[in-house]
Design goal:
The complex is a heterodimer of chains A (92) and B (375). By secondary structure, chain A is an alpha+beta fold. In chain A, strand 3 and strand 4 form a beta hairpin. In chain A, helix 2 packs across helix 3. The longest helix of chain A has 17 residues. The two termini of chain A are 20 Å apart. In chain B, helix 3 packs across helix 4 and helix 10 packs across helix 13. Helix content of chain B is 55%, strand content 8%. Chain B is α+β, with helices and mostly antiparallel strands and 375 residues long. Chain B has 19 helices and 7 strands. Chain B has a 5-stranded mixed β-sheet. In chain B, strands 6-7 form a two-stranded antiparallel sheet. Classes of the chains: A alpha+beta (92), B alpha+beta (375). The interface between A and B is medium-sized, with 19 and 24 residues.
């Protein structure tokens, strides 16, 4: 079984953080998008390349919740971040 | 009264100065009780006008300033809006800089994006509303052509072809996406813009990282001098964000005053530095500092005293600054060319400003009088 490809923020993504969360503008995005709640933690966790299982495990440990729950919660956010190009596979 | 004295009243006009100082050493305290709604609305409007919503939101989030839940929500939402705009502007800056680099145009990133990333502990604390770049005089026409080719349009026509490149501050253009880009050749219009050694300004860049790009900005000393120009000369009533930049650079860096002042004196602008520091320390109510002590005792020479009037008097205008600029133009042939260019403006420029040559000459005469007589 091949090792999972690590994910990380696209270096070209512009972003700022505040009480509102993390607002980011992906290289291919037309408008800035805001990550709130655990989306902010997800963004921080992606500062360095991390495999999805490790990402889920890290967030589950940080929040003290079931990894399956975390996986389900971050799945749509991660998919959207990848779709707009804010998160990429490390070898991309 | 000590500059860092407690706010005895919660007048929004006083509180906003403390908001502008939030996070700096020697900053005055903020209200420990939430402002009444009317005072909050005034404070919020002042913060929006002076691009201080990030500092207002941070002061509330830090617990340094009391606020109701609704007020906190409003500050947080305004901060987010300001940051969304900053990201869009940074993308526009990246596109502009890529075009300049492709064309071999020497440039520097100025103001908002540069100070946000290089001088503030968190770029989210510094909002900005446009993109400012400095280009070498020799590359000015190419830079404008490059921007026009990308769909940008000048907001105001040039006095005469070649005026900007030789004597002007630069031009403001509106890019195809609606972003305002200020293309500077020098820091300001008028005498203080004409005494800067523009070659020295471009000598050694400091690099600013934006996204995955690294762009050239001014070195720290010139960035500070530019912040002082903007604070002291940019508006008759200085914007607090500009004053914050001045204090931010002084208080967050080991800024070498000897290097700064040697450069400022060469550019006949030490009075601009002194005025900016005095204004910053007074308006932000900061605790006394070696820079503020120096500024309080600084005396401007005759040239600078008169030049300052063109920026700070009630009659402040582009015309008074342009006319006052004559004193900074060095040789007689240059002065003749300068006056000729100002008076014999292009019809397009004239139509926007004076409508006739007669009116222009009369206005020039009034502006000349204003630079000599006002105090």
């Amino acid at each position: 079984v091949p090792a999972p490809v690590p994910l990380c923020r696209a270096p070209a993504t512009l972003w700022r953080e505040g009480r509102f969360g993390v607002v980011l503008l992906a290289p291919g995005g037309s408008e800035p998008q805001t990550l709130t709640g655990t989306g902010r933690d997800l963004w921080h966790a992606l500062a360095r390349p991390v495999s999805r299982p490790d990402l889920v495990a890290g967030l589950a440990e940080a929040f003290g919740v079931n990894p399956d729950q975390v996986d389900a919660d971050i799945s749509p956010v991660l998919a959207e971040l990848q779709r707009i190009g804010a998160v990429v596979q490390e070898d991309a | 009264v000590s500059p860092a004295a407690r706010l005895e009243t919660a007048r929004p006009e006083d509180v906003i100065g403390a908001v502008a100082a939030h996070g700096l050493p020697g900053a005055p305290p903020l209200p420990a009780e939430a402002l009444p709604d009317g005072a909050w609305r005034t404070l919020f409007d002042l913060a929006t006008r002076d691009r201080l919503t990030p500092l207002l939101a941070r002061a509330v989030a830090d617990g340094a300033m009391a606020a109701t839940a609704r007020q906190e929500g409003q500050a947080t939402a305004a901060h987010e809006q300001a940051m969304r705009l900053c990201l869009l502007l940074e993308r526009s800056l990246l596109a502009t800089s890529a075009g300049f680099e492709d064309s071999g145009i020497m440039y520097r990133v100025l103001k908002g994006p540069a100070v946000a990333h290089l001088d503030y502990p968190d770029p989210a604390l510094r909002a900005f509303g446009d993109v400012d770049v400095l280009v070498a005089s020799s590359a000015y026409e190419d830079a404008m052509a490059q921007l026009r080719a990308g769909g940008a349009e000048r907001r105001f026509s040039e006095v005469r072809p070649g005026f900007d490149r030789r004597w002007g501050k630069g031009a403001c253009v509106v890019a195809a996406d609606g972003t305002q880009i200020d293309v500077h050749r020098t820091f300001v219009a008028g005498p203080f813009g004409l005494t800067i050694d523009l070659d020295e300004l471009l000598l050694m860049p400091e690099w600013v990282e934006i996204g995955d790009e690294v762009l050239p900005a001014l070195d720290r000393e010139s960035r500070f001098i530019h912040a002082c120009f903007h604070a002291a000369l940019g508006d008759r009533v200085p914007r607090l964000v500009a004053l914050r930049d001045v204090a931010q650079i002084i208080l967050s860096h080991d800024l070498d005053r000897d290097v700064v002042m040697a450069r400022a004196r060469r550019w006949r602008a030490d009075a601009v530095i002194a005025r900016a520091v005095r204004l910053a320390w007074a308006r932000l109510r900061l605790a006394e500092h070696e820079w503020s002590r120096w500024a309080a005792t600084h005396t401007a020479d005759r040239f600078q005293t008169r030049a300052l009037r063109a920026y700070t008097s009630e009659s402040r205008s582009y015309a008074t600054q342009a006319v006052a600029g004559l004193s900074a133009v060095r040789t007689v042939p240059e002065k003749v060319a300068y006056v000729h260019a100002l008076l014999a403006a292009e019809p397009g420029h004239l139509a926007n400003r004076d409508r006739s040559y007669g009116r222009r000459i009369r206005r020039a005469a009034r502006a000349f009088g204003a630079t000599r007589s006002e105090s």
